[in-house]
Design goal:
Helix content of chain A: 10-25%
Radius of gyration of chain A: 22 Å
Order of helices and strands of chain A: EEHHEEEHEHEHHEE
Oligomer: homotetramer
Largest interface: A-D, 48 and 48 residues
Number of strands of chain A: 9
Largest sheet of chain A: 9 strands, antiparallel
CATH architecture of chain A: Roll
CATH topology of chain A: Urate Oxidase
Structural class of chain A: alpha+beta
CATH class of chain A: Alpha Beta
Shape of chain A: elongated
Number of helices of chain A: 6
Distance between the termini of chain A: 48 Å
Chain lengths: 255, 255, 255, 255
C-alpha cells in the first residue's frame, strides 16, 4: 500500500505539533503512600513535523502509550518523550496527561476517613532534553475578608480551586504539592465530614478570611521558599456565592 | 435522485423520536419589560417515524426553525409543533430549546443596575394537542442551618441553583417564575454589588439559613399556592463550600 | 450539638430525593475477562424524605459508598440501596454511577491490541425491591445511505454514539451489550488501527450504510430477540460531518 | 465602612492578573453585512495588582462591561482596556470575550439559506498600548487521503474544527477570516442542505482529501500571503470517524 504520509510536501511549512488528542486511557502511577494508583487519563501526544513530510503516523502514538501505561510516572515522561521522538523520527515531542488522583483524607476532628479527588496533569516537551511540569488542582474554601469586616455576623464563603503548575528538581510528589497549598486558603475541604468537623471548618474559615489575591500570594510565598521548585504558575478561582460569576487571580514566577 | 428516506422499511419498529440535536441558532422572544429579547438557543427537534418508512427528512427541521426564529415565544410552540407534524408527515412532534435569558436587576441597597443570566428552556410535545413546559434555572445563595447552629461564628454558604420545570394555564412569564422562586433560598445573587449590598446580602443569608431540603419545599409550597401552575418539578443543587461534591433535592407535584 | 436535620418540619411536603451529587470516587468492579477493573465513577446517591423531617444526613451516603467501593458491581447495587434505606431510615433509595470502562480490542486485520473506552452507568432505585438498569455508550461509525446513493463516489460518514439503557434478568455483562450493539452501525471504531485495518473499516462502512434510524432499529431488533432483556431505551447520536449539528433517533420498548 | 481591598500588603508579591471570570453577558457588535449583531459573551476581565495593595475592586469590572456592552467591537477593545486601567488604577489590563457569531450561508447548489454558528473570541492586553487578537473556530469536513488511497471505494471523513487566532493591522472582519480558511479543508459544512447540496459536498470532499497536517498548512499559507495579518496560530482538530479520539495539528507564525 502507498504510504501517503511519508510523501514529499512542497508547501515549505514546518508543523509545530501533530498528533492525537482527547484519548481516554487507563494508566498506573506511583502513589506516595500506597505504592501504586490506578487512574484514567485524557491524553494528548504530538510531535513536530519537518516541512518536507506530508504527514505523521498516528497509530504509533497509541503504541507508545500502550507500552508505557502501567508505569506512567512523571519521572518516566522523559523516556516516553524520547521514545516518541524515535518511533516518529521527530525533532521534538510533546505529551500531556490529565487525570484524577485520589488521596485518603482524615476529617479534622472525627478522624473519619474518605477519599478526595484532585485533578492532576503532567506536561512534557522534549527537543534536546525533557522539560516536565506537574499540575494539581486543589479544591479549597475561601471566605471573603471584606464581607466579614462589614457585616454584623457571617461572611460569604464558597468553594474555590487552587490550580498550580510547577517545574522542579529532584523528587516532588502530588501529595507534597497538596500539603503545601491546601492550607493557603480559608479552610480545607473534604468528602466526609461529621458535625464536629463541620463546626471546626466553619470556624477555621471564619478566622482565616482570604481574597483570591491572598490565596495566590500565600501559595507563591510558599513556592518561593521551596528550593526544588524552579518555576510555577498559580491560578485561584473562587465560585463566589453572592454572584453567578467567579473571581480569579494569577501569579507566575519569572521564567 | 432516489429518495431513500421515503423507502419502505420491514423491520416493523416504530421510532419514538428522530431529528436534529445540539443545533445552535439565534432566536428572538418576548420580554415582559422590554418587548423583545435576542438570544441564542441550543435546539433539538424531532418527530415520530412510522414503522414502514426508512427515514425522516432532516433538512425540513431547519427550515421550520428558520421560518419561526424571530418570534419564538413559548406561546407559539404549539404552532411550530403543528408545522413540524405537517411538513414531516408525522403523528407526533417534539422540540426543546435551551437559552440564556437576561434580566436587568437592581442591587438591593445601592440600586446599581446590571444584567443577570438565567438559563431557560422550552419543552414541547404534540400528538393531538401540544403539551408545553417552561424551565428556568435560578442561581441563589444557600447558607447551612446546621453549620450556623453548631458554630461559634459564621456558617458555610455557597452558590446554588434552583432548577424548575412547570406546566401552566394562561400566561406565565420567565420573570414571574424568577420572582416566585428567587427568595426561596438564603439570599439572591447579582452580577453587580457595591459594598453596602454585599453587607446586606451577607446578613440576609445569615438570618435565613436553608438546607436544599428547605429550598425545594419553599418553592413547592409557592407553586402549590399558584393556581395557574398545573404541574412542576423542582431540583435544587448546592455547590457545598466544605466539600468537593454537591448536595441536591428534588420534589415533583403529582401528574 | 443540636441535630437540626432531625427536627420537625411543618410544611407538609415529602421530598422525592435528597442526597449528594457529582461526587468523584474510585471503584472496582468485575470484568468479564480479567476478574476486576479499577475505574472512577461520578456518583449520585439520594433517599426520599418524609414530610415531617427537616433534613437528611448527608455524610452517611459517603460512608455507605466508602464501605462498598471495592466491589461495586451491578449485582451488589440492591444490597447497597438496602443499606442506604437502613442507615438513612428512608422509604426509598436511589443511586447512579457513571464511569469509563475499558475493553481490550483487537484491530480487525492486523490484530493489534489496544484499550477502548466505553462510558457506562448503573442506575438503581428501591422502595420495596430494587430496580436496576445498565447503561453503555458505544462509539461507532455511521455512513449515510442517501449520500452514498446520490454521489458519484464517496459518502459522508462520521463518529456516532449508541447509548443504550437496559433492564434484564440474570447475568448481563457490559461486554455482552457491546457485542450485541457494536455491529449495528456502519462499522466499529478502535483506538489503534494499522493501514490494513483502516482499509478494512473504510470499505466495511461503505458497504453498510446506516441512517440513525437504521441503527436504532437494528439495536431494538437485537434486544427484542434477547430473552433476558426485559426493557430498553436506545438513543443514537451521529456527529454529522456535513453539518455543525447532530442527527439522533430514540426507540424505547414498552414498559 | 473599612476598605480592606485598599489596605497595605506586605508579602511583596505582585499579582499578574486579578479579576472576574466566566461572566455571561449580552453584547452587540458590528456585523459586516447587517450592521449589528446581538450575541452573548463569556467574559474574563482582569488587571495587574501592585505588591503593596491587598485587593482589587471587583465590581468595577462589571461597571466597565455594562457601560460598553452595546458597541463591543474588536476596535473598541483598546478603549475598554484603557478604561479598565483607569478605574482600577492598574498598570496593565486584560480582557477575553468568547461568543457565538452567526453568518447567513447559502447552500452550494440549492442556494437554500440558513444561519451557521462560529465561536469567536477577542483577546486583549494592554500595558502601554493595546495588543488585540481575534479568534474564530470554523467547522469543516476532513476526508482522509490515506483512507481514500488504500480503499476500493469510499474514504473515512468527519467533522473537524479550524481554530485560528490572529493579530492584524487595519480592518479584519470575522467574515474575512471565515472566507480565508473555510475552503482549506476537504469541504465546507452548513446548517441546511438539500439533497443536491449533499451530493455536491460529498463529491467535493472526496476530490479534496486532507490530513489535519494539510489543513493547517493550507491555512498557514493563506495567512502568510495576507499582508495585514501580523501573527497567527492555527489549530485543526479532526473528530476521526474511525476512532474514539481526535487528530490534531498546530502551526504558529514566528512572533
Amino acid at each position: 500500500m502507498r504510504d501517503i504520509q511519508s510523501e514529499q510536501d512542497d508547501r515549505n511549512i514546518e508543523i509545530d505539533r501533530v498528533g492525537v488528542k482527547d484519548l481516554s486511557y487507563p494508566i498506573s502511577l506511583s502513589d506516595k503512600t500506597h505504592g501504586q494508583q490506578h487512574t484514567i487519563a485524557i491524553v494528548n501526544m504530538s510531535v513536530s513535523l519537518p516541512h518536507h513530510f506530508r504527514g505523521t503516523h498516528m497509530s504509533r502514538f497509541i503504541e507508545v502509550l500502550n507500552r508505557n501505561r502501567r508505569e506512567l510516572d512523571i519521572h518516566r515522561l522523559g523516556t516516553i518523550l524520547k521514545e516518541m521522538k524515535d518511533v516518529l523520527e521527530a525533532e521534538s515531542a510533546h505529551m500531556e496527561l490529565e487525570f484524577p488522583y485520589f488521596i485518603e483524607k482524615e476529617a479534622p476532628v472525627s478522624k473519619a476517613q474518605s477519599l478526595m479527588e484532585y485533578k492532576c496533569r503532567f506536561v512534557g516537551s522534549m527537543t534536546d532534553k525533557p522539560h516536565i511540569s506537574l499540575g494539581v488542582k486543589v479544591p479549597v474554601l475561601t471566605l471573603c475578608p471584606c464581607s466579614k469586616e462589614i457585616s454584623v455576623h457571617g461572611a460569604h464563603n464558597q468553594r474555590g480551586v487552587i490550580d498550580v503548575l510547577v517545574r522542579f528538581k529532584g523528587q516532588l510528589w502530588i501529595e507534597d504539592i497538596i500539603d503545601m497549598v491546601e492550607d493557603c486558603a480559608s479552610a480545607k475541604v473534604y468528602s466526609l465530614l461529621k458535625r464536629e468537623d463541620e463546626k471546626y471548618i466553619t470556624e477555621t474559615a471564619y478566622e482565616n478570611p482570604t481574597f483570591v489575591e491572598d490565596v495566590v500570594r500565600n501559595v507563591a510565598q510558599r513556592f518561593n521558599e521551596t528550593d526544588n521548585i524552579t518555576w510555577y504558575r498559580v491560578e485561584v478561582v473562587s465560585f463566589e456565592s453572592i454572584h453567578h460569576h467567579n473571581a480569579y487571580a494569577v501569579v507566575s514566577s519569572d521564567d
